[in-house]
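Hey there, shall we discuss this one?
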Amino acid sequence: MTRITDLARITGGRSRSISPENFTGDKGAGGAATEGTGAHPARDLGQGWKVSPSVDIPAGTGFTMAEISGPAVIRHIWLTTDAKNWRSMVLRMYWEHDEQPAVEVPLGDFFCQGWGEFAQVNSIPIAVNPKGGFNSYWEMPFAEHALLTLTNLGPEQARVYYQVDYELTEVPEGSGYLHAHWRRNNPLPYKEVHTVLEGVEGAGHYVGTYLATGTHNSEWWGEGEFKFYLDGDEEFPTICGTGTEDYFGGAWNFDLPGAGYTAYSTPYLGLPQILRPDGLYRSQQRFGMYRWHIPDPLRFHENLRITVQALGWRSLDRYLPLQDDMASTALFYLDRTSTHRPPEPDYDRMEVL
């Protein structure tokens, strides 16, 4: 992230932006389209009057959002599309011509919207504003090449508005590549843990977790511990938390007396989404929460594995292993462009029922 102390420093960087109004990001090439999704409403005004503000991605197809030659740093991504597409589209990012993606995540989960319903997010790297304005400020440096794609796995065409803002600039030696992996268990097998991250080899630092969890039992669900296995840890981790709500910066079941579960969104920690039963078809509670390790990144030099337990209470003095719906997005910087990753998301695995 850019430090406040850097704001006044004049550099040789050159700002560029890719959107449907300038697919290449070339200098002086914005707003010149003569056809596009806005051509009809702009028919009386012509070129330069919002002729191409968005793209339509047919069902079952992929689309190249941005292809950039470096060295450069992606500073900001803004995007919006209908909420029905948030768990049926896959966002991928590839660095330095690698054929394997470093980022491969359902679109909504990357922006802390795993349940396909809007939740306001007011954090440093991710901001989501009414009524579905997705913003990412994760810093994404690369030396030679970046490719960002969206794949529509849904049954219908998706209209997407987006903008990728980047800076052509030298990338400091030792900069890592942003990675994001997504995993889901629904349900989590009895007495097993949910794996947030595994098989990551190399040196880097872990910077964030988004967790979308849906409860399949009554009573409190968040006693489970996050465990970080660093650099060869096997049976026991180096870092072990004390409970799910503790890891996300809350306490005592997120329960504000008289109000019950209470949402919050802060620069680095949040429980922005609480979906409650409706008394008819929506029977289970669902939650979305984030924890960004920006002031406190977790450093590793050989490998990294992360798990979290799903744990409730069988009685007041005995834990109950839960079989919940758990979907996690893990974000980290690594000294290489790809690493072992989970099976790619498919429509059935992502679907919110």
